[in-house]
Amino acid sequence: MEKTVNQKAWFLVLPVLLLVAFSAVIPLMTVVNYSVQDTFGNNQFFWAGLEWFEEMLRSERMWDALGRQLMFSGIILAIEIPLGIFVALNMPKSGFWSSFCLVLMSLPLLIPWNVVGTIWQIFGRVDIGLLGYTLDALGINYNYTQDILAAWVTIIVMDVWHWTSLVALLAFAGLKSIPDAYYQAAKIDQASRWKVFRFIELPKMMGVLMIAILLRFMDSFMIYTEPFVVTGGGPGNATTLLSIDLVKMALGQFDLGPAAAFSIMYFLVILLISWVFYTVMTNLEKREG
Amino acid sequence: MADMTVNQFSSRGLSLPKINSSLVVMTLYLLFLLLPIYWLLNMSLKTNTEILNEFTLFPRDLTFANYATILTDPAWYMGYVNSLIYVTLNTVISLAVALPAAYAFSRYHFMGDKHLFFWLLTNRMAPPAVFALPFFQLYSSVGLFDTHIAVALAHCLFNVPLAVWILEGFMRGVPKEIDETAYIDGYSFGAFFVKIFTPLIASGIGVAAFFCFMFSWVELLLSRTLTTVDAKPIAAIMTRTQGASGIDWGVLAAAGILTIVPGALVIYFVRNYIAKGFALGRV
What we know:
The complex is a heterodimer.
Chain A: E1 4-5, H1 10-35, E2 37-39, E3 45-47, H2 51-58, H3 60-90, H4 96-106, H5 113-123, H6 130-137, H7 148-176, H8 180-188, H9 193-221, H10 225-231, H11 242-252, H12 256-288
Antiparallel strand pairs in A: 2-3
Helix pairs in contact in A: 1-12, 2-12, 3-7, 3-9, 5-10, 7-9, 7-10, 9-12, 11-12
Chain B: H1 2-44, H2 48-53, H3 65-72, H4 74-107, E1 108-109, H5 113-124, H6 128-141, H7 148-172, H8 176-184, H9 189-200, H10 202-218, H11 221-225, H12 234-237, E2 242-243, E3 246-247, H13 249-267, H14 274-278
Antiparallel strand pairs in B: 2-3
Helix pairs in contact in B: 1-13, 3-4, 3-13, 4-7, 4-10, 5-7, 7-10, 8-9
């Protein structure tokens, strides 16, 4: 659509600007403030420069958390994206069963995040949970509070359970936008199922898949509540992801300086990814229309 | 050539079983999704003795006592009321500010529009963990700590950008000629917006409201940090079940099931727009 230049449109945007400034800019400035100051308590602060940033960059704790975070996001992406596409390809295209699947698949997306954690905490317990009990009965030693591997498997399966439907829903929306003529042409050319997928469905889904990948990456990068409820970051620090570590530091130990420096670097990483997200998305939109 | 004959064979031979394989895949996937929820439901209908002493796939001794506990104790059900109050407040605030902004973004070019639009998006991507402590201090200092409005405003951090993006996506689908015709017919901006434009994007408003509602409802970190007693959300109250005598599993499960209900009730109405909402209006 052709847009006209109109500077008065700023007045329409003003409420949003003020509200977001109040709920984002002011808090963020507090963080910046803490990150360059040190305190002896009693609300007396003095300038510390970049000391906290240097300390955080040298701290093994942060790098370990970042490593675990990248591993977590990598694994869930590698599972959820292909699985989501696969599910979308198998969904009924229209009619009652299509709605039926859509509604049931959306269900996990609407559960409060700590309830998601609670569900899996219970489900995985050897004494009262279906999953834990079954695995135990099969003779598999499964204990997510003690065993590092079991803890990781649990939080990954939980995330797959929670969010694969999102990828599937987006991929399904992409698939539905493909006109029938494409499939008829493929049929005339006697294209194989794989070739239909590779040359028709996948390119047409690219736009929504890009959104799915980046949304999942971003949200998994900020994940806090679900793994915290299930494992509390343990055993040891084995599942302490970035957000869990940050909350521990800021609200648990009240190490304001380091926590603030940590926050800023954390936010910058996400900002960088958001920028890539935005650029890729707008370029795709331009190419399409 | 050999390739092609194989394909012909496979497409003919597999045409019937293909439907079945889809059915199998979908059944397995839905089973995987529903089993953990079923297990929670199952537990919520059992007595604690049955939960702890017997392993049963369905409740032998069906009881609604766990639900009764929650629905009769104000300390419990006020959690739902608190959650619903701040979620509703948040949805109303988000939509009220997002509607005009989304209109501006969808219709006009103005100085800094692209940067502003992107900056809004970055707030959707801001980790709540980063904001937990500053929010706590900000709302304490202005005397809003432990109020519903504090949580509602805090959730605006990610819901306002979301609403702007979703609404902008829907508004772009409305041809601009409609605006121009209305102005020629003598409508003022306000009258046009309320009487003509809003009905045209009613589904978009519904979807944006649904998503604001949903993301405010599922979030816990900020709502827990900003409340202690008066505005404590149900999700945080659930930790109450850990008493001296161990965890009250039945009540915990019942509380969990009750938090799923609101989402499950409205999801049917937005089923066809869920993908669009998650894609921030970009499908």
